[in-house]
Design a protein that fits this description.
Layout lengths: L1 H23 L6 H19 L7 E3 L5 H12 L7 E10 L5 E10 L8 E12 L2 E6 L12 E8 L6 E2 L5 E14 L6 H15 L3 H10 L5 E8 L3 H7 L8 E10 L7 H4 L1 E4 L2 H6 L9 E4 L1 H5 L1 H5 L3 E8 L6 E6 L7 E3 L3 H11 L6 E7 L4 E7 L8 H4 L9 H10 L7 E4 L2 E4 L2 E4 L10 E4 H6 L3 H5 L9 H8 L15 E2 L7 H7 L6 E2 L1 H13 L8 E3 L16 H17 L14 E9 L6 E9 L4 E6 L5 H17 L5
Parallel strand pairs: 1-5, 7-15
Antiparallel strand pairs: 2-3, 3-4, 4-5, 6-13, 7-8, 8-9, 8-10, 11-12, 13-14, 15-24, 16-17, 16-27, 18-21, 19-20, 22-23, 25-26, 26-27
């Protein structure tokens, strides 16, 4: 009897506790309900990250799941392939476990090295029996996103840094251009776009097949660029009035980083254009298809500095009337300037002097006191290559300045007599002087006259005074064989050790295995002027680090340089360069040079000259010329008249 009474008492207590809990409005959570809600939330996060509406789902405004998916696809279209990560930040369930919400953390990695766009949204949940469902709206995608809004991410290119020259003159900066191309929306069909592409390609002389394929493969709203012209320019004026009859052909005003002219130091500075597939691949994601980047020269070598840091903006864009709203923004950071030593006045004058020269040609001007390259002009005959800094040619008699140093070190003086004959034979090979060498200057003449009149045979007669390394050491003493560090690809000269006989004879007169760039021979002249080996400098900011190199065993000394300057001065006062005796700007020291090359009969010749005037050293080169004095000489005279007297910056 007692046990039965006790059981009844326990039952009454349990009923009372349950009733009390119910009255208090508290319901114990069932683990299976929370687990189901968590699983749904995790699946919803994965779906949203993949661009899918979670399922099952309720849709605001009574739309069905298919319509919601269509809207989501349109909402995300402007984000392209930008990685989107969504994680569950928290789960809240209300009393009775029949409703709640999930907090979702979003991370958009718009650019690998930029701050990501992060935010949190919330999606309402409800339980339908044992199944959980979310309530879908655009606000689940991004905070405050209206039903008619879509997302759009736009890259903001950083303004590119400038390239400035001597005295702070701006060499490369944003300048007005016109982009010529086909606007697909203005063509009636793909067939018409193809026809227009062929007509435009013929008008501007580009590959018609390649351009037609580019236009046909572009989207219906695309503008497909064909060419870019400066504004104003003769080329633009010539075609501007002929675009109208071509359906879709149009021009778009824009700006590009450009030098003062299309030719201005073009091989040195390079250009800016759309990144090639090779550049995109090599950048490992840093450069994307369609990006503008440096192509060649300093624009490529200093691209990271000049490019700066691009930014982006993510906007909510109404599909109806209304202005876009910025949701997140990373500002672009302007690129830094690059400062070079090129002097605007001197570079323009040097290029003007070469404008009418048909073979490859170059003029290089260096300031000996600091090694600054003031001009590095390559003529049009080089077909866009940097003849000035990369061309490798036999320097001919300009190399006799190096040979003279080697002979001075061997004990000769400017007054030492040498046998200048019409011809001389070394190991069966006949060497002669240039064709119109004055007969009155033959015989035993002092070294200073051998150099002044450029007597080949006189120098060859002294070959026994030189060791195998004598010429190589003299070239190193004058900076010719150093490794350049211009900040762009460049080469100076190569002077190997001689092996005796004809090898020594040819090397003494700048032939055989001796080669130099115009930059290299300008460096020789600058070193003679400075009385020490000069290292040519092009980029001053950022400062270029000089490559590690074996120190010159015996750099040219001040007394040696003074003797060499005396020899080169005599070339002007009484030798092969008397046409420079009255050059404006002060006394000139010079050396003419003619180098035979090839197998033609008569042989073809390179024409050279080097000169020093005050704090200026110049090398002039023409790949095919009648001779140093006759071909390179007038160019040098023009340069001295135009730039040697210009104020140094």
């Amino acid at each position: 009897m007692r046990r039965r009474g006790f059981a009844v008492l326990i039952s009454l207590i349990v009923v009372g506790v349950v009733a009390a809990i119910a009255i208090a409005g508290v319901v114990l959570l069932r683990p299976d309900h929370r687990q189901g809600a968590q699983e749904y939330a995790e699946a919803a996060a994965r779906s949203l990250a993949a661009g899918r509406v979670p399922a099952p789902v309720d849709v605001e405004e009574g739309a069905d799941a298919a319509a919601a998916q269509q809207r989501l696809t349109a909402t995300l279209a402007g984000m392209g392939g930008i990685p989107h990560r969504v994680t569950v930040a928290g789960l809240t369930l209300e009393e009775g476990e029949g409703a709640g919400s999930v907090a979702l953390d979003h991370t958009w990695t718009v650019h690998a090295d930029k701050q990501p766009w992060t935010y949190r949204t919330s999606m309402p949940l409800r339980r339908d029996g044992d199944v959980w469902r979310g309530t879908w709206s655009n606000a689940v995608v991004a905070p405050g996103l209206a039903p008619t809004d879509r997302l759009g991410a736009t890259r903001r290119d950083a303004p590119r840094g400038r390239i400035t020259g001597a005295g702070g003159a701006v060499l490369v900066t944003e300048r007005a251009v016109r982009r010529i191309g086909i606007s697909r929306p203005e063509t009636a069909s793909v067939a018409q776009a193809r026809t227009s592409a062929r007509r435009l390609a013929a008008l501007i002389d580009i590959d018609p097949r390649a351009y037609e394929a580019a236009v046909a493969g572009a989207g219906p709203q695309a503008f497909v660029e064909a060419i870019v012209y400066r504004e104003p320019s003769r080329e633009l004026a010539a075609i501007a009035g002929r675009l109208g009859p071509i359906p879709g052909a149009t021009s778009v005003a824009d700006a590009r980083p450009l030098a003062p002219s299309a030719t201005f130091a073009a091989p040195i500075l390079g250009r800016v254009g759309e990144a090639t597939a090779e550049i995109v691949e090599a950048s490992k994601g840093k450069v994307r298809a369609g990006d503008t980047t440096g192509l060649g020269g300093l624009q490529s070598a200093q691209n990271d500095r000049l490019t700066g840091s691009p930014g982006f903006v993510v906007e909510a864009i109404p599909t109806d009337e209304g202005s876009p709203r910025a949701l997140f923004e990373v500002p672009a950071r302007r690129g830094s300037d690059v400062r070079v030593t090129l002097d605007l006045t001197r570079q323009v004058a040097a290029e003007a002097a070469l404008a009418g020269v048909r073979p490859a040609s170059a003029i290089v001007a260096i300031r000996p006191s600091d090694g600054h390259v003031l001009a590095a002009a390559s003529g049009p005959g080089g077909t866009g290559g940097s003849t000035a800094t990369l061309g490798q040619y036999a320097p001919g008699s300009t190399f006799k300045a190096v040979t003279a140093l080697a002979l001075l070190r061997a004990g000769l003086t400017p007054q030492t007599p040498l046998a200048c004959a019409a011809t001389t034979t070394v190991d069966g090979r006949v060497f002669k002087n240039y064709d119109d060498y004055p007969a009155a200057r033959l015989g035993r003449i002092p070294l200073q006259d051998v150099v002044a009149h450029s007597c080949n045979t006189g120098l060859i007669a002294a070959r026994d005074r030189l060791g195998p390394d004598s010429l190589a050491e003299a070239a190193g003493a004058l900076g010719l064989t150093a490794t350049p560090s211009l900040g762009v690809p460049a080469a100076l000269g190569t002077v190997p050790a001689t092996t005796g006989g004809t090898d020594v004879a040819a090397a003494e007169i700048g032939q055989g295995r001796i080669v130099s760039s115009p930059l290299g021979m300008a460096t020789v002249a600058a070193s003679i002027a400075a009385g020490r080996p000069v290292r040519p400098v092009l980029v001053t900011e950022p400062a270029a680090s000089a490559p590690s190199a074996t120190p010159v065993a015996a750099p040219v000394t001040a007394p040696e340089a003074q003797a060499l300057r005396g020899l080169l001065r005599r070339v002007v006062t009484g030798g092969s360069a008397t046409f420079l005796a009255r050059a404006p700007g002060g006394p000139v020291m010079a050396k003419t040079g003619t180098a035979e090359y090839g197998t033609d009969t008569p042989p073809r010749t390179h024409a050279w000259m080097i000169a020093i005037q005050g704090d200026l050293a110049i090398a002039v080169f023409v790949a095919d010329g009648a001779g140093g004095a006759r071909t390179a000489g007038p160019l040098l005279a023009d340069v001295l008249a135009d730039i040697a007297t210009a104020p140094s910056r």
